[in-house]
Amino acid sequence: MTAVQRGPVSGSTSRTRMRANGYGLSVRRILLALVATVSLAGMMDFAVVAPAAAQSFTYNPLPPRPRPPKAANDGQMLVQATEVDYDYNNSRVSAVGNVQLFYNGTSVEADRVIYDQKTKRLHAEGNIRMTDADGKITYAEMLDLSDDYRDGFVDSLRVDTEDQTRMAATRADRSSGNYTVFENGVYTACAPCRDDPKKPPLWQVKGARIIHDQQEKMLYFETAQLEFFGVPLAYMPYFSTPDPTVKRKTGFLMPGFTSNTPFGYGVEVPFYWAIAPDMDATFNPRITSRQGVLFQTEFRQRLLDGAYQVRVYGIDQLDRSALAGQPGDRQFRGAVETKGQFALNDKWVWGWDGVLMSDYYFFSDYRLSAYRDPQASFLYLPTEAISQLYLTGVGNRSFFDARTMYFLSFSGNQQQVPVVYPVIDYSNVLNYPIFGGEVSYKTNFVNLTRNDAAFDPITTTANTNGLCTMTSADPLARTPTQCLLRGFPGTYTRLSAEARWRKSYTDPFGEIWTPFAILRADAINSEVSNQPGVSNYLPVGDTQAFRLMPTVGLEYRYPFINVQPWGSTTIEPIAQVIIRPNETYAGRLPNEDAQSMVFDASNLFNVDKFSGYDRVEGGGRANVGVQSTTQFDRGGAVKVLFGQSYQLFGMNSFAVQDSINTGINSGLDKPRSDYVASASYSPNSTYTFSVRSRMDEQTWNVERFEAEGRANFNRWSVSMMYGNYAPQPELGYLTRREGILTSGSLKVAANWVVTGSARWDLEANKINQYVLGAGYVDDCFVLAANYVTSYSYSAGTAPPVLSHAFMFQIGLRTLATSTGSSSSAGIQ
């Protein structure tokens, strides 16, 4: 046994003494006698800290709680106290006054501690605080333990764990070093009220007995009741739950509720099976009131280099009449979902997503996983699911992605959805200059096939008469003035490669010159099936094409800076001249990835304004504009951009019709483009205002206008966006579109938040979507509810469908989380 010496501690001075049967002995003799007696008796080793007065240093009656020293882990017990007494006759050691014991990572603090050598029991009294190696803290007024802390009982007990859970009891008995029985116990994961610690927590579970099995890591509650703010709400004769240290445990999860017209009401009772540390399974049968039992099973496994999961659904429907005439009118319905991702090394990963269904309405009818938005707490209506296999690599200055994709349509138009096998992207930026400039290159390869043409009506006549459908009575009526060919039937293969060089330098006058050069090449093979009406848009049969687009250009900027006492303003004229030949095969090849075309201030200075590879901008062009940025010394900034684009020579690619009229009505389809402008103002971190607009270059009529404002305060935030868009008949928008989208949240109390959003169609004078939600969140409890209403529109004369969805969620930290949802739809 080695005596541990401690340094001085600031505080008031107090003399410390040791006794042996009432006879005074020197400190050194008592320490030696204590060591010898303890060792001969065979009890645990003690390392006794010499009292403060014996070392001639001051003593603090309320010293800070020290961390157990390293010596506490070598099988010895370290004892520190104001006074240590030894009773030779009764073989008892008493430590009195601010006692601190350390043993194998556990510390005990109390007013008085008595160790009985004969019974090998440790008895502590007064203001007891015991901290074990896991960080669990036990408070009590009386504590009785065996010498290795294995067995014992505690009166007036309170336990605080490291993960902020708490237990209290009038008495606790511990046996076999494993079981702890709390008499009249209370369990909660809520912190006590700061203003009134005696106030009941938000929720707590009381039990006549709470049994903690540390080996199984389970809590068993007998004659339990769940209370909110001290008011009993639920009574349970018996229930069990894993203790807070458990991250995964086999057993039943909280039930859930859902409803939808095809299956009525449904109750789910999930069962979780922790098969092994690296795998688990969840069985989640849904008992429905109309269709019977929907079986759901999910299996997950994590391996050394990744993880995967599989979900299986199946139901033998009892009432097919609820789905008469619909795709779900069948006896058995089911689906399989799977996904996985694995790392080859620190730069490469590969993985997959897969979906297989008995019919394309299955997920919709039963509101299953693919119909739930993982980023929101309400249901949404996707149009398709994706099955894919991919390989992705990310380098310091490079990126590679290859994947093959199969889209599963939820609308039943499976023959009009393409299969992609594969699409490959690679890009790289060289880490060394060439001719003093930066060089980058990228490649793209795609191969896709589609069975049936996908037409989209753009006139009222075509919509009403169904001229654009595959079952149209007059398929030859499908013309570019009535319909768009969204997807061609056949096979399409394209290989694209592009290299870029650019260099910037500033002359003595502060002008910034940036020359650039681009070389793009495309090799294309198109096999278009000769289905009715397709020849009005694309050449049918096989077409091989090679497209080369060399580009050179120069960008010029000349910033003027004005500094004032209130801030600085930078005005920067920008001019960009681009020289290149005409786009070859313009409008005569399929367009699958460049169908979106919005011209605004954000892409004014893009060299190629098409969004994908299938179209490439050609002809000489000049982009000019002026940009102004003002920075205020007290915070805030204003940024304004105004400009226009000019077709200098050659063919204007945006004026050429393709199968979907990309570029038509974009504002770029004329020698002088529409004017584009944007302005943003942020006076501080609270407010943000922005405006984006496109104006006709002759009449200055507003063709496209968006205004947005946001405010974010401590307790509330709000945003509003106004949009006004002119008709684009060649794209199917026959009337002006105008609407307002608003959203906001309000923190009505410390933990209560109310949210809402609405979309108002000003042309139809109708709110076509709104979301209302409320939630309570704190460190131990979650309560949330959302209600969503929206219209979904379909082609033809069918009226819009109004859908409703409601979701409710409640969660008790460390105990359970339960959800419920209900949805319905009706013609409006």
From TrEMBL:
Keyword terms of this UniProt record:
Cell outer membrane, Membrane, Signal
Top-rank taxon, per record? Bacteria
A Pfam family this protein belongs to?
LptD
Q: Report one GO cellular component.
A: transporter complex
Q: Where in the cell is it found?
A: Cell outer membrane
**What HAMAP family does UniProt report for this protein, alphabetically?**
LPS_assembly_LptD
Q: What's the name of the protein?
A: LPS-assembly protein LptD
Q: Which gene encodes it?
A: lptD
